[in-house]
Amino acid sequence: MTAAPTDTTYRNPVLNADWSDPDVIRVGDDFYLTASSFGRAPGLPLLHSRDLVNWTLVGHALERLGPEGEFTTPRHDCGVWAPALRHHDDRFWIFWGDPDQGIFQVNAPEIRGPWSSPLLVKAGKGLIDPCPLWDDETGEAYLVHAWAKSRSGVKNRLTGHRMHPHGTELLDEGKVIVDGDRIPGWFTLEGPKLYRHDGWFWILAPAGGVETGWQGALRSRAFFGPYEEKVVLEQKDTDVNGPHQGGWVRTPSGEDWFLHFQQRGAYGRVVHLQPMSWSPDGWPVLGDDGAPVAVHRRPDLPPQPPAAPATDDDFPGGRHGRQWTWTANPREGWATQHSADGLRLTCVRSADAHDLRRLPHVLTQRLPGTPCTVEVELRLDSGEPGARAGLAVLGDAYRWIGLQRGTDGAVHLVHRFAETVAEQERDADHPRPAPDGTALLRIEIGAGARCSFLADTGDGFRPTGQVFAATPWRWVGALLGLAAVAPTGQGHAGTATFTRFRISTPARG
């Protein structure tokens, strides 16, 4: 068995949910992290830590995705890919690639904003994973990015540019500075993070694919190359598959650390923290001589109380916490503010009411990476026949449990699912009465993201349907979702109210 963490050690993963493609920086005594958010809004989550182990979510840098017309409906695997976070000239900067549009940039004087409107720095299909560098020694600025073959027909290479020091434009047409096809055994080279250290330009970049890859380090005396390479982190004999793609950060005392992801199926890409040192020949050494660590001495930083991104929510005044994101750009009227606790969602009329994957008004948060129990109270206030609301495990296949108003005016507990290839959902169990129009919904999520659904409609919790193995999308882990929807028609279709959302997990140890 893996040893338990202590007051002087930590255990990986330090962020046990889908914080995909993390990048990290230090400003003073504070550490900040951002991650991919794909097609959800708001995007570009911002996390804060004082010890690199305990993290909290403090906001988002991107309120809405653009152009607006492209994100009025869900595009689950598109949008914000692999951002880079930097601090320069007393400002925070985030660069990211949208594989269908190009490379964008936002910046702000403080991590909590206000953040600038997105600026398109380089237009083009398949431009992904950008990272800037401001060279304090020369005053020059650079940018490196990778390529998505699905959009450009190109992959396994990194392109470098000179960049205006203001971060607003590129100063040349770009040059391939690393061609992964010329490195024996390397493929899918992507996710570069650019640094200057010890007289070298460093590119820390993953290769080998999301689930099976490794972390590479490349160095050159000149930005445009040539670069030499070395594998610095790989699975070896551990159970951490594909440990790669992340960022390097140095503590005030001079310790080096590396945060990266591990792909875990329906849980998405969870975040690990690796110790980092330097070999006599000047190469970085990650983890335990290049293998990821499970338990390790904590960073030499002041002790902090245990913390993690919030999950529970009482929805005070009808407002949801910052852990929630919509599956597309939100519209006015989806949620109603009021004087009490509880999330009051409009039963939005939609021709896609038969398929949660197509609905932009599903409010989601990340699926925890450990066994847990999810509970929420639901009251269906809508009198519209066919109006329904519930709690979902949402992915390329999905399943949800909730309440529906029948044509006879009665409210029923329903449990529905859709397979990956199915174009619409169907019943997972026979509907049963919910006399008061209320229910307490529960999902018990076990090992392997296997989900059991239960509900209490006044006579205690009773299971419903079969066990469901949560599934991710191509790049996004499965999500927990709250939704309210109604068939097409005229007029307002009423609301549903969710209260006391809770996720309980076994104690770590």
From TrEMBL:
SUPFAM superfamilies: Arabinanase/levansucrase/invertase (SSF75005), Concanavalin A-like lectins/glucanases (SSF49899). CDD domains: GH43_FsAxh1-like. Residues 299-322 are annotated as: Disordered. The keyword Hydrolase applies. Residues 313-503 form the Beta-xylosidase C-terminal Concanavalin A-like domain. Gene3D superfamilies: 2.60.120.200, Glycosyl hydrolase domain, family 43. The keyword ATP-binding does not apply. Belongs to the glycosyl hydrolase 43 family. This is Family 43 glycosylhydrolase. It comes from Streptomyces edwardsiae.
